[in-house]
Amino acid sequence: MAAMNTPGWLLDALPDEAALASQLGVSLTLEEESRTISLLLDDVDWHLWQAGETLLCHLPRGQGSTEARCLLLGSTAGLPVSQTRLPGPPVFWWDLPAGSLQLALRKRLGLYALRTVLQVTVYRRTLACRDDEGKILLRLELLHQVLQQPLPTTQQQERLLLRCRPLRGYEAAARKLISRLQPWLGEAELAEAEDEAAQWLAWAKLDPAAELLPQPVPLQPDQPTGPAILQLALLYWQQVGRYEPGILADVDTECLHQYRVNLRRIRSLFSLMKKALPDALGSSLRQQLAELARPTGLLRDLDVLLLQEADYLAWLPATYHEGLQGLLRGVEQRRRRVQQQLQAHLSSDAYTLQCQVLQQALETPLQPEAGSWGSRPLQRAARERIQRCHRRVLRLGRAITPQTPDDEVHALRIECKKLRYLLDFFASLFPAQALKSQLRALKQLQAILGDFNDYGVQQGLLAGQIEADTPAAQQAAVHGLVALLHRRQRAAAEQVMQALAAYAQQPLNLKEA
Amino acid sequence: MKTLAIYSMKGGVGKTATAVNLAYLAAKSGYRTLLIDLDPQGASSFYFRIKPAKKGWSKRFFEAYENLLAQIKASDYEGLDVIPAHLGFRHFDGLLGQLDKRKARLKKVLKGLRKEYDLILLDCPPSIGQLAEAVFGAADRLLVPVIPTTLSERTFSQLLDFFDKEALDSSRILPFFSMVEQRKSMHRKVRESLQSGAVPFLATAIPFSADVENMGEHRAPLDVFALNRPASKAYQQLWQELETKL
C-alpha cells in the first residue's frame, strides 16, 4: 500500500484555507480535526534507537477517546508494527498484550523500562483535495506541534507545518497540485513524515550518540598508557551517572545493574592495568570505586532473587508455591526498605562529594615518568596484557577436569571476565574481524561459566533468606530450590570442559588494526 | 493473504453492495485490503468514486502481478485499495479462452500481492464462464448472496451442480441470504428449504433496504452514512461471522 513521499513545509502562520483552495483550484473539504499527544519512548540505553527503530505512543485527546496507540517504525519486518486500545503508554514489554509489538519489544528491551524521551502535542487539521466526483486526490495536513518534554513548561517550543499526503494511484494528480503550491510556499523543505521522530530529537536537542559510550571506544595506538587509562575510565564514569535518575525513581532493575556493571568495569580497568598508574593513585581509585559499589550490593542480590520468581515457580511442584511466594513477598518488603536506603544514600551530600572527588581524580592530567609502564605506547601495553590474560585462561582451562573443585572453575570464570573486559576496552586498537571471532568464542564459554556461577550465587542467596523463625513451608521451598539449583550447577560444570575445548580452537590474533 | 470472491451467476442479488461494505469493514478491522472490481459495469469502483483507467489494460491482466500493481488506487478509507473495473474486462472470458493454464491464471497473479495485502476481495460479474472458473481456482472462500426466491434457489443449485461436475471443493462456498423481505411468504419458505440443504448458509441474513439502494447516491459504504441502520448492522454482523471463517 506504498505511496509516494510526503513533502512538507514549515510555515510562519497557518494559511487561510479559502486562499489555499483557490491556489489549488480544487474543492477542499475538512476531513478530520484532532489533538494528539505523541510520546517518543525508549529505554535509558536507547536500545530502540540503536536498532534504528522508533516507538511512538499516541494519546488522542477529545471526543471521549482515552485509548493509547503504539507504533513501532523501522522494525526488521519493514512494516510499522502497531498495537491499539492500550490503557496508556507501556513501561515494560510485558505491559502489552501478546502480539507482534510485544514480541518486537521483548527482543530489544529485555528487563529495561521504557521512558518518555520527548512529548509533542500535535493539533492536526486534515483537508481533502477532491476531484469532480468527490474522490480524494491528495490530503493536506495542517499541523501545529508543541514540544513539551524534555523542556521545562516555560520553554515550550512550537512549529507549524503543512504536509502533503499523496494517495496511491493518484501520484500524478498529487504532483500537479503540489506544483500549484510551490509558487506560494517554495520548494518542499521537510523530509518524510516517517522520519519525524528524528526531526523531533534534533528539535529537542537530544543526541543519543553523544550520550552513549562509543563502540568501540576510540583510542590511539601511540598514546601513553597511563593517561589513556584515565581517559577510558572517565568515559565509563560518565555512563555511571546516566543510571542514577533511574535508580532513584526505581523504574527498573537494569539501571542499578548497569550502574554496578560500569563501576566494576572501571575498577577492573585499574586492576588489570595496575602498572600504568602510580601505585598510590591506582589503589586510591580502586578503593573509591569499591566504596561506591558497596551500598548497592544488597539491593542487586534481592533483585536477582525476585527476577527468578517465574522460573522458580515453574521448577517447583505446586505444593511448594505458597511457601516460595510467602518468602518472596518478604524479600519484596525488604527490597523496598533497602531501595529507600539506597535512594537516601544517592541523594546525600556525602555521595555527591564522593563522586566529585573521583571525577576530579579522573580529570587530573597525568604525566607518566619517562621509562615507566604508564609511558609506554598503549597498543603495545594492551596487546601484552591481553595475550598474558589469554594464556592464563588457556592454562587454567587445561587444568580443569571433572574432579576440579568449584573454586578453580570460579577462578577460570574470573579470568575469562578479565579477558572480555580487556577486549572490550581496547577493541579499537586491533582488527575488528579477529576480535569478533575471539569474542564470539569467549562469549560462548562465558555463558556456560556464567550459568555455573549464577546457580551457585542463587543457592547462597536463597539459603541466606532462612532464619530460625522462617515458616516451615518457606524453608521447604528454599531447600527444594537449592537442591534443584545444585543439580543445574553440576550440569553446567559438566558442560564447561566441552566449552573449553571449543574455545581453545579459536586463535587470538592481535595484529595492528 | 486470503482471497474472498463475492460471486453469483445471477445478477441483481447484492454482490456489489456486499463487496463494497465488506471491503470497507475488513479495512476498518485492520486488514490491509484490496478490492478488485472484475465486473466491467464498474459499480464497486463507482461507489468508491474511483474512475477507470483511461487506457485499456485488460489484455495484460493475467500476465503478471506487476500489471495489477500499476492499476491500484487508494480509496478514501485507510487500509483499503481498489483496482477499478475497465470496460475491457468484458472480454475476460474470451481472453482466458486463448490462454493456457487458464484456471490457475488468476490465482498466480494474485499471489504476487500477498506481501502488500491481508485480504483480497473479488467483485465478480454474474456469469459462469472462463473467468468464473479462474475465480473458483483463486478464491479461498466464495461468498454467494442468495435472494430467497425460487429463481435464486435454482441458480444456487446450478452452482452446486457445477462444483460437483467439475469435482471442485464445495466446502469453500459460503452462501448467505440477501435482500430478505421477512413479510414475503415466499422468502420465508425458500429460506427454510435452503437452510436444510447440503451446503450450510451463514447465520447472518442481509435485509432488503432502501439504505443499500442509497449507496449509489452517497457513493460510500453504509457505515459512512447509515451507521446504525439495520442493513449496516447486518453487514457488520456478516463481516464478523465471515472473519472467523477466513
Structural account:
The complex is a heterodimer of chains A (about 525) and B (about 250). Chain A is α+β, with helices and mostly antiparallel strands. Helices cover about 55% and strands about 15% of the residues of chain A. Chain A has helices spanning about 15-25, 45-50, 100-110, 170-185, 195-205, 210, 225-240, 245-250, 255-270, 280-295, 295-305, 310-315, 320-345, 350-365, 380-400, 405-425, 430-465, 470-505, and strands at about 10, 25-40, 55-60, 70-75, 80-85, 115-130, 135-145, 155-165. Chain A has an eight-stranded antiparallel β-sheet with strand order 1-8-7-6-2-3-4-5. In chain A, strand 4 and strand 5 form a beta hairpin. The radius of gyration of chain A is 29 Å and the shape is globular. Chain B is α/β, with parallel strands linked by helices and about 250 residues long. Chain B has helices spanning about 15-30, 45, 65-70, 90-95, 100-110, 130-140, 150-165, 185-195, 210-220, 220-225, 230-245, and strands spanning about 1-5, 35, 75, 80-85, 120-125, 140-145, 175. Chain B has a seven-stranded mixed β-sheet, with helices on both faces. The longest helix of chain B has 16 residues, at about 150-165. Classes of the chains: A alpha+beta (about 525), B alpha/beta (about 250). The interface of A and B includes residues 2, 136 and 167 of A.
